[in-house]
Specification:
The protein has seven helices and 32 strands. The chain is mainly β and about 600 residues long. Strands 10-9-12-17-14-15 form a six-stranded mixed β-sheet, with no helix packed on it. Strands 21-20-25-30-27-28 form a six-stranded mixed β-sheet. A hairpin with a 2-residue loop joins strand 1 and strand 2.
Length: about 600
């Protein structure tokens, strides 16, 4: 007697879980130490102390192969708690080490340490790590280079060499103090003072020219550039003067090659790019410039630079060459056109598994909005004395006292609710230019999660909104999964005509998708990773204002499809001591 379709799906899910374990048995173990402490840095004629990893900015890169495991022992020698997130790593059945504070753990207290286990399975290419507590990401971040497993190679000719380029924001003041001030007053956040490439702002800032990052290249060689955008709150355009870029990877997965003169990369994204040094010997500017499509002039307008410098004998004739066709700050069309070109390989060696229409069991329509919350006596610095906020489906997320994962695993109630809505509370013209009433602008606050059954197929429709005339592109990031970006477009999503435009054959895999200003983006994934997984906008100010939520994915029917046991020690939460004692006793019993 044949198996039913339901039984076949369970068997395939179990087989997929076992296949994920195979690389772990074959891969190597790597051990790293991160020491978090205050370190003095001088930029823009100013010296300040900032919280860093191993006294470097950006922090150290991790180098592994597909299928390896890394252990990172984090020693916190700072003055406040912090966590580290391994951005884009799925961590199968292993949410304990994912890292977002108050979602899967509480911060590592000063004077203590915590060791993360990072399971590399299907990821290949470039990803990154960063602090995931408040705004500490600004100064604590670094690349993760995942090379092909032994015995395999790239799906493109092997480059002669590779370079890592990490983009970041620079603030003359302490970022934590700036965050605390902005959140306490409820108004706009302070803008960055510069952008950086590998820690240096470049030629167009004061006191910076002597230390501009230089990338040395040999004529005729091809280089793999591994790009990471850790900028706090701004999408960026990237280009190298007079050189053609071939994009071959996005968010730890390979894509069909895209030949272009520029890219658009959002905070949270990583890309792999091939560039051949085929121009006359000389120096050529590498630029990152902000892309901002919001209504307010609320972004750092500066441009960071590095230099693509040829080796050899030649005469310097002035400044490096400057890109001739670089998009401007507010040029939306080049950004959208670039994203629409990205497609997965969908080859036998790099296959994909896109949930099809008849497989979708959970469909969520999620509005992405800037909003407000009332302040007593109109005492805040936002519009009308309100507090600036942000929301998904009109819910501004509030961090609990005990992280969601620990509360869920120990069946401790009172720290979250399972009623995150599948739809916004009201439906209206989300992209109208007149969304200013309290019914549209005020959000509710809560710690709400969405519960998914193991292995169900999920479709998320993100709808950008123009509430408070604040529409802009939002980079939405999901932990624990790589989703497929099956569609995006302008205006209000039409559930009859827009699905006809979906790409279900070779959509790109990603962990961060730019939801267009006053437009929509649709992603699909299979909920085959049990645990608690965070989803949020990767603009840090929007995340701090509440543009986040979490999914709980239930265990499957077997041990191989269930959450792994927690480690014997998790960083403690600042909540009731008797509850903590009971929870850690529970952990010891399970270990």
């Amino acid at each position: 007697m044949g198996s039913s379709p339901c039984e076949l799906r369970w068997l395939l899910a179990l087989l997929g879980g076992l296949l994920l374990l195979l690389p772990l048995a074959q891969g190597e173990d790597h051990y790293y130490t991160f020491v978090l402490r205050d370190t003095d840095f001088t930029r823009l004629c100013t010296t300040k102390s900032m919280f860093t990893v191993n006294e470097s900015f950006p922090g150290p890169a991790l180098y592994v192969r597909k299928g390896d495991t890394a252990y990172v022992n984090v020693f916190n020698e700072g003055h406040y708690g912090v966590t580290i997130h391994w951005h884009g790593i799925k961590q199968p059945r292993n949410p304990w080490f994912d890292g977002p504070e108050y979602i899967t753990q509480c911060p590592i207290p000063p004077g203590t340490n915590f060791t993360y286990q990072i399971l590399f399975t299907s990821e290949e290419g470039t990803l990154w790590w960063h602090a995931h507590s408040d705004w500490t990401r600004a100064t604590m971040h670094g690349a993760i280079v995942i090379k092909p497993a032994l015995g395999t190679t790239y799906p493109f000719p092997e480059p002669d060499d590779e370079k890592v380029l990490v983009f970041a924001s620079w603030y003359d003041e302490d970022v934590m103090e700036l965050m605390e001030e902005a959140l306490s007053e409820g108004g706009l956040t302070t803008l960055s003072d510069a952008y950086c490439i590998n820690g240096q702002p470049g030629d167009f800032y004061n006191c910076s020219r002597e230390n501009t990052t230089r990338i040395s290249v040999d004529y005729g060689k091809t280089y793999l550039l591994r790009l990471v955008n850790s900028v706090q709150n701004t999408d960026m355009y990237f280009a190298i003067a007079n050189h053609t870029l071939t994009v071959v990877g996005w968010d730890g997965a390979y894509i069909k090659p895209v030949v272009t003169s520029y890219i658009m990369i959002t905070p949270g994204q990583a890309m792999d790019i091939l560039v051949t040094a085929d121009q006359p010997l000389g120096e050529y500017y590498i630029l990152i410039s902000p892309f901002f499509d919001g209504q307010a002039d609320d972004f750092d307008h500066s441009i960071a630079s590095a230099i693509f410098q040829y080796n050899g004998n030649y005469t310097h004739t002035g400044l490096p060459a400057y890109p001739s066709d670089f998009p401007g700050w507010e040029d939306m069309a080049p950004a959208i056109d670039f994203v629409k070109q990205l497609k997965s390989l969908n080859s036998p060696e790099h296959s994909i598994d896109v949930p099809q229409d008849d497989e979708i069991t959970t469909r969520m329509f999620i509005t992405v909005s800037i909003s407000m919350m009332k302040c007593p006596n109109a005492s805040c610095e936002g519009p009308d004395g309100n507090r600036l906020a942000s929301a998904l489906n009109n819910i501004s997320f509030a961090n609990p006292d005990l992280d969601v994962l620990q509360a869920y695993y120990s069946n401790t109630t009172g720290y979250y609710t399972t009623d995150f809505p599948d739809l916004p509370p009201t439906l209206f013209n989300f992209t109208s230019e007149d969304l200013l009433t309290d019914n549209e602008t005020l959000s509710d606050q809560g710690t709400k999660v969405k519960v998914l059954n193991f292995n169900e197929s999920v479709e998320l429709i993100f709808q950008g909104t123009n509430v408070m005339n604040s529409g802009e592109t939002h980079p939405m990031h999901l932990h624990g999964f790589r989703f497929y970006v099956v569609g995006l477009g302008p205006g209000n999503f039409d559930n009859k005509t827009d699905p006809e435009t979906y790409n279900l054959y070779d959509p790109p895999e990603a962990n961060t998708v730019p939801v267009p200003k006053d437009g929509w983006a649709v992603v699909r994934f299979r909920a085959d990773n049990p645990g608690v997984w965070y989803m949020h906008c990767h603009f840090d100010r929007h995340m701090a204002w509440g543009m986040d939520m979490a999914f709980i994915v239930k265990d499957g029917p077997t041990a191989e499809t269930s959450i792994r046991k927690p480690p014997a020690y998790m960083p403690p939460c600042e909540t009731d001591s008797s509850l903590l004692s009971a929870f850690h006793s529970y952990l010891r019993q399970q270990a």
